[in-house]
Known about the structure:
2 domains; alpha/beta; 5-stranded parallel sheet; Rossmann fold; single chain; Arc Repressor Mutant, subunit A; binds calcium ion; 4-stranded antiparallel sheet; 38% helix
Amino acid sequence: MRILVIEDETDLAATLHRGLSAEGYTVDLAHDGQDGLLRARAGDYAAIVLDIMLPTMNGYRVCAALRRERIDTPVLILTAKDGDWDQTEALDTGADDYLAKPFSYPVLLARLRALLRRPALGPTQLAVGDLVLNPATRTCHRADQPVLLTAREFAIAQVLARRPGEPIGKSELLYHAWPDHAADPNLVEARISALRRKIDTPFGRHSLQTVRSLGYRLVDDREPHR
Ligand code: CA
């Protein structure tokens, strides 16, 4: 099981990495909020341990962004005991649990195990207009008709569908769709073209749009019904 730890205090992060690895988890570390969000967006973590006070983007904003993008990975927030933030606010942003610093390590482990035991939420479908993606089954439908996507095409469509209308850069698409971190942006262009030929062209649609110098976005391009 993979756990993402987003914590800027390097000593604490290293301790968590060591401790959780010893428990058999695979642990990834992020040391600031934006990097943490980027990693968490991949959505393949069993749980996320998230500090509140972080450089570039605080933990509440990271958690709120994940929930807005319908990424339901369980989140355990670490709050400072004398924190400027109300701990209940952690839960308001969509965190599943919180723990005040300083915490005892056995308590952290117990809380984490409890989170991991929770039944997974039902598969959350992502819909942009009549384009529907189901991440659990890796299936795609346009206007109720099945569309067969390769794993990479699906990964790209998934990143775009989580933030409808928002331009997403090639580097972010590369990051998520090429886990080996291939670095050639031309790869993205080719896959975007292939994706258009599947989800747009046969349906006479233009939902996958190029946004000059920013990247690509997925929109609901249906004519409004009157
Ligand atoms: Ca911190």
